[in-house]
Amino acid sequence: MNTKFIIFSLLLALAASQTYSISPCTCTQLLSEGDCTKNAGLGCSWDSTKKSCGVSTTPVTPTVTYAAYCDTFAQSDCPKAKPCTDCGNYAACAWVENKCTYFTGCTAFAKTTKEECQAISNRCITDGTHCVEIDACSTYKKQLPCDKNASGSLCYWDTTNNTCVDANTCNKLPTTFVTDKDCRDVISTCTTQTGGGCIDSGNNCSDQTLEIQCVWNKLKTQACYWDGAACKDRICDNAPTTLTTDDTCKAFRTDGTCTTKANGGCVTRTTCAAATIQAACEEIAIGMELLVLIRHVQMLLLQ
Ligand SMILES: *[C@@H]1O[C@H](CO)[C@@H](O)[C@H](O)[C@H]1NC(C)=O
Ligand SMILES: *[C@@H]1O[C@H](CO)[C@@H](O)[C@H](O)[C@H]1NC(C)=O
Ligand SMILES: *[C@@H]1O[C@H](CO)[C@@H](O)[C@H](O)[C@H]1NC(C)=O
């Protein structure tokens, strides 16, 4: 079985070298850790300090066993096909020169667009020159593929160190993010800033200095309200006096807990029981006034 595998790998390597490059692929030509370690047939190992692939000094055992079923897949299914049960998340086949063949890694293919690489395998994107495997952010050596890791989380290109890292802080989120929601959907404690991109949210609503940031407090436990000059907690008492109807007060907070009050603005809606008591109070007050009036009339009539 092992011998068959090696022979098959060699045949593949030979076929690949004849079709796609002048010389056979060597370990040093493999640019990503994924390609390096998964091409067991070449006997390569990844040097994580040098970030390079070299010939392994210790014997490498293949991590992937597979069946050569790839040629049964049509072009549309081939880049996604998983004929093996132990291939992990990855497709085991690749669409190459009009046929579906066993996938040996992305970097063998010189393609300049993401679409071309994806058409070969769902594991591949381009670095501008070659296809590279979609993997951890830290495996991308160029800025172009430094977009998302294999789990779909965003990556960030550090221009100082020329490295690709996880976009795990507010300042590493892309400048195409222009709303509080864009930022919080990825990291919930971030808000937006002028010119795009994200920064750490202020702790309280009152700490948010811009209207575009005045949406939530840092922990997203308190909604905020921009009163035209400052950011405040979105509580009934902070509603503007321009709100004069029950409906506008109700709409001021999504939980509908605000109701109108005299002279505009809102107060927290009291319970039904309290409202009934208040209404009852008013009725009693009216009744008392009537009683007083009747007494006056009676006294007038008696005179
Ligand atoms: C992708 O990034 C996320 C967040 O940084 C991390 O939790 C996850 O393990 C990464 N996945 C891969 C395949 O690198
Ligand atoms: C560059 O890398 C060094 C060492 O890993 C790190 O301490 C530093 O924060 C990085 N620079 C930037 C701008 O992130
Ligand atoms: C702001 O929030 C902190 C806790 O996050 C709290 O201790 C503090 O009292 C708040 N300040 C104001 C002005 O609300």
Automatic annotation (TrEMBL):
Pfam families according to UniProt: Paramecium_SA (PF01508)
Name by which UniProt lists this protein: Uncharacterized protein
Record's signal peptide: 1-21
Native species: Paramecium sonneborni
InterPro entries: Paramecium_SA
The entry's keywords: Signal
